[in-house]
Specification:
InterPro entries: DinB/YfiT-like (IPR034660), Maleyloyr_isom (IPR017517), MDMPI_C-term_domain (IPR010872), MDMPI_metal-binding (IPR024344), SCP2_sterol-bd_dom_sf (IPR036527). The chain is an alpha+beta fold and 229 residues long. 49% of the residues lie in helices and 12% in strands. A 4-stranded mixed beta sheet has the order 4-3-5-6.
Length: 229
Amino acid sequence: MIDHAHDLELVQTATDRLLTAVGALDDAAVTQSSRLPGWTRGHVLAHLARNADALVNVLEGRPMYVSGEAREADIEAGAPRPLDEQLADLRQSAERFRQAAAVPQDWSRTVELRNGVTDQAARVPFRRWVEVELHHVDLGIGYELEDLPAEFVEREIDFLTRRFAGHRDVPGTTVAAGDGRSWTTGGGAQGGPLQVEGPAADLLGWLAGRRDGSALRVKGGALPALPPL
């Protein structure tokens, strides 16, 4: 059962943490490279603000983005802004999302995201939580995968292993955190079964494309190359 109200509280906590961390930066820091190839921190911040507005669109029954080109153009246009404008946009867009999610609605309905992906409306707050937490890490300002809330790490590993389940490019794989927790994924490609073991933060980093998996132990073959998210 998806508890959207609980997830909205988690989004708010993560957003407050992000705003506090970004507020300690300066204009020069915003122009520096993030951990995402080709993106400055300004790109990441602009994307986070536009993603909040895009999820408002989803909740209100509009297309998430006008087009892929418009999405990219908005991020490029927002990236060079000074820190105070970035912060104001982050704060205001987050509030627009909070208000849209506070409106009584059918949370069991199916909504459409990017590229034809559909999901239950109740999972939209979780998806926003993912954006805020992982992109906070992507900023490279001292918030690491190891700092992510334990609930987030477990739920995001669960979400990503489900996403790759049956994928034609991923052999059957068991992902094990070493503390008794394990997940299964892949199964659509030849090879395996594989077992990938390591700390939960490193498992999440590999599944989410934030780490290369070199800290993980693999049994039964080579570490699978995961498709892009």
